[in-house]
From TrEMBL:
Polar residues: compositionally biased ranges: 334-348
Gene3D superfamilies in the record: 3.30.1380.10
Keywords (A to Z) from UniProt: Disulfide bond, Hydrolase, Metal-binding, Metalloprotease, Periplasm, Protease, Signal, Zinc
The protein's name: Penicillin-insensitive murein endopeptidase
Phylogenetic lineage: Bacteria, Pseudomonadati, Pseudomonadota, Alphaproteobacteria, Hyphomicrobiales
GO terms for biological process, alphabetical: proteolysis
Signal peptide positions (record): 1-32
Amino acid sequence: MISALVRTFNLVSKLSLAATIGAGLISGDALAQQATPMPGSAKAIFGAVTLPTQGLPQSFGFYAKGCLSGAVALPTDGPTWEAMRLSRNRRWGRPEMIALLERLSRDAAKYDGWPGILVGDISQPRGGPMFNGHASHQIGLDADVWLTPMPSRTLTAAERETLPFTSMLAKDKFLTINDKVWTPEHARLLMRAASYPEVERIFVNPAIKKKMCDTWTGDRANLGKLRPEYGHDSHFHIRIRCPAGSANCKPQAPVAAGDGCDKSLAWWFTPAPWAKPKPSEKPPAKPREVMVSDLPKACQAVLNAPSVASARAATFGAKAAAAGTPTGAMPVSSADTGSTPPGTVPQQ
Ligand SMILES: [Zn+2]
């Protein structure tokens, strides 16, 4: 069991690392790579689980420390979305998150001149910490969306693994948007995502936030939901609030009032956030690896709970589709997996 786990881990680790390096996206991302996980390692154990639990969706704990039961998968394809990096098996989330992504994709196509979205990492089948790429995404309420529009054709599974990320930043300039890649449609997509009441935060690169502050001429009531964060220059990260009735989901304080185009943004354009520790300073102690026992107690029960029969059975809209009810979603593919760009994440 353990050796199978370690083998799975090594394989996944190599694949992820290859994908990361292939995409040339290392700096600014919190990549927690290591050769051998400790026994009890939460990311090794949650990362090896391939299917969600049966039962109703529940989030346990916080965005950056928790787990998830009753997850559903975003279908790999829809009329206005495609799920990316399917081998990662991270297209799982709360039904509220999946519904939000599908709605965003439809609205963006209908109103914002954005042909459809490419969806990156959501959560693992039972949430929990990941081998690489994210501190959060643990309770099914975070999702990454590429800042690359969906192509007009269906990408193959191989293309979904290798399509490179496109940074919105100008090369060789400090925190500056590349106006050759940034468009008004990008701005509309972000504000569309911010417009939904259940969306509490959207993490973007500080240069993107500044661009929005400088150029957005529409209603600025939701601009404050756009939060500057390291990385996030080729994708943005949507975080929704704990759904009603989620007693075990730990909420995050709402963002401060205002558009956020203030001192808190200006700070990112000072040396402070980018300063390397001085050689005289002791490097910070490496944090101890997170164990399953560090997570909310319920997470061990989530790991022990019986699985759904298949990924297909737990794909969002599958039941309705089986009953012949139109859902707006395309037929579900049999691919077992899901997801994205590495990104630091945001506990702010
Ligand atoms: Zn993210």
